[in-house]
Amino acid sequence: MGKWRYGVILDAGSSGTRVHIYRWLNSDKARAKASDDQLHALPVLETDKKWTKKIHPGISTFGKSPNEVGPDHLEELLTHALKHVPLEDVPNTPLFLLATAGMRLLPSSERNAVLRQVCDFTRKTTKFQLPDCDLHIQVIPGETEGLYGWIAANYLLGGFDTPEEHDHGKGHHTYGFLDMGGASAQIAFAPNATESEKHANDLTLVRMRTIGGDAMEHRVFVTTWLDFGVNRARERYVEALLEASPGELELPDPCLPSGIKVTKHGKPVGSDTHGEHGKEPMLIGTGRFTECVHQTYPLLRKEEKCVDEPCLINGQHVPAIDFDVNHFVGVSEYWHTTHQIFEKGYKDKAYDFATYQKRVQEFCSKSWADIERGVKKEKWGHKVDEKTALEVCFKASWIINMLHDGIGVPRIGLEKLPPSTNTTKTVIRSAKKKGFLDPFQAVNKINDIEVSWTLGKMVLYAASEIPPPASSKDVLAVGFGSNLPGIPADFQRPGGSYLPYHGKDDDDDLFSENPRRIPSFLVLVLILFVVGFLLCGRDRRKAAGHKILHMFGRGGGRHSNLRRRRGFAGKLFGLGSTPSYERVLESGEGADDFELGSIDSSSDNENSDSSEGSRIGRTSGWATPQIKAGLADPTTPNFFENGRDVVAQGSVLGLGLGPNAIERGGLMARTDSRERLSGGRRSRTGSPSRLRSAMTSLKEISD
Asked: Where is the composition biased (Low complexity) (predicted)?
């Protein structure tokens, strides 16, 4: 087993499935290289933007045809994963498919059928590690999705590894997490000490393990709101409009730009059509954003009975949020709706309610004709198409309602914020640049790394592979469950286990641990061969060429084409139809023009900080075989790796191929043959023009 461990996660969402690949050092290898600070930090994971791929639609669309989910959906994703995981590591690489809100809405019979087909297809067509389908292929609850997202956000921000640098006051150093997709929304945060004690039974215990083997525990509140994703909220909104005006075929919609007409499913209607032959109602945009915010407020269902106080929305219990210490980051729709439409002018600015509402109000008051022209001119960035522009007014109103009237985030720019305490000036300056000391900040990436709940899942898995210290007596498992001492009955383990490292400690071995990469020793031999071949002279190259062509001629069969073979070989070995004359290397003349250039070795990237594959974690920097039914032999060599490429340097003289290695007799024989071919004259150095020039010079001297 190599020093790198790999993991593959398929995020099966409501609109599509995205494959993520992560890698980290084997725990023994990581511990051997770790400093004292790193021993108290979580494992360092790496990824690369090339390792991620998304396809549409989601696997929930295969509910009626589960047998098609493998060849029509999974095959492309698994093939992509096999391109980037070294072939010899595939059997030791865990694969997870974790489905979210889209699959939660399917009937149980359809959901189970799709999951069975996912497991069967993956096992039949790949050798990825899949020991337990109930653990590796499942629909995860929204609470689990939110918990993984909370882990990912704090992992990237550094809230786990360096708590002293993230002191928000009152002994609090982690960040809250908000996520919104198409069908559901999640919240996860660690309440302040008072609320944690008051609502201890509502918290989830999360236990991880540092590289040194020490346990790291956190207690987090997490909940999910199904039907509160932005697409489901829009569907509920349209249903309310239809119920409020039964029988009407034209319904004014303040959440659409003025002048646009759409069906109840959101598809634009042409000027010459009226729904489905005039029978289906359609929505007519009026472009009144303030009214849109007012009409979407009831979708929060604030009036629902709260059984367990306090509650935020839909009657669901949430401990009181102390915005003095709870600073939230929002991802997915929170980011896209607050930033994407203003990509050119708003991308890097922290969210504040007053500025955002002003910009949305200005955009949504435009006519649809003006918006269409702006989209064509890429006024709001190349990512904003007509569909995005059509939906953004409703989405913005929903985000504003969820954040401020639902969750209770203070309206920055309108409401006065409570002062933060016990926070160093350095941390304030650093965090304010990114907005992370504000009550809410929308993010897509942290230090160029996408904030995805899949990262949180894999951090937990990597931590579970680290063994506890040998001196530990009471060892508690890595995972999460009810906030109870020991290992509660509902405790969920991530699935990893300790794997000792048996590889070589010498990273500079000439032969890379991954056979996908050509060993540097062979590269060196090839270079030396080419140089030696060039130094051996034209006649010997001719002789070698004739032998090779003769060999090819024998094996080529009746239909072999000598002219075609000589097209390349003739150029390489000097066998062209027209004789050419070149300088003969005598007594080392010209030999000094041939030398080996230096070849730099590249880093193995264990602790690099490059944008394509650098590490992530404490320092917050990140760092194909085709899939077929009946997998090919996994021992087939695979030429790819992101590790170290070590190329030894050498010289011609070092291998006895310098000028003195060519016999003088051979040089004279070649010189004589050249003189015979040219009518007794030597090529170039003994050419008539040079002889005449020499004679003229002698005559001038004598005169």
From this structure: 597-614
